[in-house]
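Troubleshooting entry. The earlier prediction with adenosine-5'-diphosphate gave an output that would not parse, so I re-checked the input for stray whitespace and re-submitted. Clean input:
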Amino acid sequence: MANHKDAVRLMLKTLTDPETGAVKELSEIGAVGHRVVHGGEHFSKATLIDRKVKEAIMECTVLAPLHNPANLQGIEDCELLMPGVPQVAVFDTAFHQTMEEDAYLYAVPYRYYKQYGIRRYGFHGTSHEYVSRRAAALLGRPGGELKLIVCHLGNGASVSAIKNGKCVDTSMGLTPLEGLIMGTRSGDVDPGVMEMIAGKDGKNIHEVVRILNKESGVLGLSDGFSSDFRDLEDAYLAGDNPAATRAIRAFVLRVAKYIGAYAAELNGVDAVCFTAGIGENSPVIRELVCEYLGYLGVELDREQNRVRGKERDVTTPASKTRVLVIPTNEELEIARHTRELVQG
Ligand code: ADP
């Protein structure tokens, strides 16, 4: 599509298409839930949208320059086309707002936090929240008494530590570049790497950050072979592609390191959950990660672990820590928050 406005129009037209639509006319729609990427420190939960909320979303544009303006455009188009229908913003950062300052502050001069809001915000919050609630249901225990580690492994990937239903830490930071090795994002690197690339290749800071976002991760590690785990996994299993093997091993080690850190931070863990494209669909990656988790008493059930895209406990009855596969459902979570706000 040429722009977001055209895309929203087409989406609404598709929704009401006489042949393939889900509703007859737009008047059947009682509320609209919008996924908004960045809520900064303004929003710790889903919120009914009014003028003030839109201003706050605009203010967060400095933190998400590509996403927040597009999200606002979608909101304003829906307001225009569905006048009077409640619009709700569900923020990707909101679930992580329960982190305490020891988890969200960077060890840089404190004034950068106060003046510019430089801190860890975290992303994929809607997914982490949904998966943690499903985990409690699957375990048949109240979420309020569980220690969970959720690994959202997709093109973008993040891990979060959740204690008694609240996020206490997460691997993405000020931007989605921090933490795990991703499809094309580097995740954690020594900032000194940036200075060296800039110096050696004669690049400015924006170019270096672009390289870390678009040319790094498993794509970079595999020397340009692929950012797609289906290709990487096939090559890894064939055993004849050292570049793919290198990328997969590094990816898995990084996930294992975060699980280790969060198990310590939570002082124990009841379940490790896998979700998103890779987490839901890749028995190989799950198995390789679990090989690092012997110290948690994890005993993977290989037969159960063959599952793709279905909720399942993939550990043996004797396993001290559960490992769960839980397909994420951000749309459903957004709809749930929207309904709660509008009905409540
Ligand atoms: P995002 O929403 O961040 O774009 P997804 O959650 O859709 O990402 O995940 C995309 C990733 O999931 C890709 O690397 C893709 O190769 C991987 N993936 C999807 N299906 C499979 C599968 N069957 N086996 C292994 N990896 C898969």
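This one parsed fine. Residues 154-156, 183, 228-230, 233, 276-278, 281-282, 308 surround adenosine-5'-diphosphate (CB under 6 Å).
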